[in-house]
C-alpha cells in the first residue's frame, strides 16, 4: 500500500500544479469571472490610468486584451471558450454581432451616466434604442497632408488623390471598405453600394491612382507622416489628431464628396461571466470626467456631450474633429453588407493591391 501511495503522490502533486497553472493562464487569457473583468479593445484605445482608477473604485481586477480588426474580434468571440466581459466593436460589427446572437442586452437602469451622451450618437441604425451598445468614440475618415509640401493642392475632395503632383506620395489605410469607399464616393456612389457595375467602376478608377500610392499600411501611417516620410495619407480622424500634434505642418480634411462616419461602442458579449461588473465599467467610462480624460489621451472624438465641455478649448473647438451637425450630413455609417458582399469587397481590394505591384 505504501509503495502504491508513493507512486500516486507525484501524480497528484503534478495534477495540482497543472490546475493552478491552468487557472493562472485562464485569468490571463480572459477565462476568469468572479471578481475580475476582461476587456477586449483596440490597441492603445484607453487611458491606462482609467483602468487603475476603475480597479481602485470597484475592487474589480481588470484583464485587458487587444485586437486589431473587428473581424478578428468577432471570430474570437464566435469561437467561444475565451471569456470577454466588455468589447468595443465598430458600428457594422455591432449589427452583425446582434444578428448572430453574440451580445447580451444592456440593463439601462445600471447605466445612469448614459444621460450625458449626445443624442446625435444614440439610437442609430446599427443599434436602435441602444439595446446592446453604448457610445465610446466616434470619428471620420479623411485626408491628412503636408501644407508646406503641397500648398496649391485642394484636398477638399477625394479627386485630389489622383493629382499627378502627388506621385509616390500617398499612404493608404489597409482596409477594403475604406479604399473601395474612396472610389465609390469619388464617383458619387454610396459607401454601402452593392451594384456590381458601380464597384467595378470604382476599382477601375482606383487603379488609375496607383502611381501616386507610396504604400498601403496600418499604424505605420502615424510615424511616416509625422516624420515627413510621405506628404499625404488617408486615415481616421483620431490618428490624424496624433499626427497633427507631432507635426504642425500637417492638416486634416473630410472630403466634400462624402466619407465614413464611424462609431465604436461598448458591448457585453454573450461570453461574459461578470455581467454586473461589465455594466459598472461601461457606466464608469460614461462618466463625463472619465470620458474627457480618455478623449484627451486617445485623441478621438468623444460622444459624451458633458465630457466635451471639460476638454481643453483647443480640442473642443477644433472643427476638424468636432464638426457642426450640418457638416456630418454627407457622411455615411458602414452597413453590414453580409459575408458574401464583404468578401467581394475584399477581393476587389486585393485586386487593387496586386495591380500596384
What do these coordinates show?
- It is found in: Periplasm.
- Keywords: Periplasm, Signal, Transport.
- One of its GO terms (cellular component) is periplasmic space.
- This protein is α/β, with parallel strands linked by helices and 357 residues long.
- The protein folds into two domains: 29-138 and 263-323, Periplasmic binding protein-like II (D-Maltodextrin-Binding Protein, domain 2, 3-Layer(aba) Sandwich), CATH 3.40.190; 139-261 and 331-356, Periplasmic binding protein-like II (D-Maltodextrin-Binding Protein, domain 2, 3-Layer(aba) Sandwich), CATH 3.40.190.
- It is 41% helix and 17% strand.
- The strands form two sheets. Strands 4, 5, 6, 7, 8, 9 and 10 form a seven-stranded mixed beta sheet that branches. The chain has a three-stranded parallel beta sheet with strand order 2-1-3, sandwiched between helices.
- Helix 7 (220-226) packs parallel to helix 8 (237-246).
- It is globular and about 60 Å long.
- The termini are far apart.
- Residues 22-33 have low confidence and may be disordered.
Walk me through the topology.
Elements: H1 2-29, E1 36-42, H2 48-58, E2 61-67, H3 70-79, E3 86-87, H4 91-99, E4 133-146, E5 170-173, H5 176-186, H6 196-207, E6 213-217, H7 220-226, E7 232-236, H8 237-246, E8 250-253, E9 259-267, H9 275-286, H10 288-298, H11 305-308, H12 313-316, E10 331-332, H13 338-356
Parallel strand pairs: 1-2, 1-3, 5-6, 5-7, 9-10
Antiparallel strand pairs: 4-7, 4-8, 4-9
Helix pairs in contact: 5-6, 5-13, 6-13, 7-8
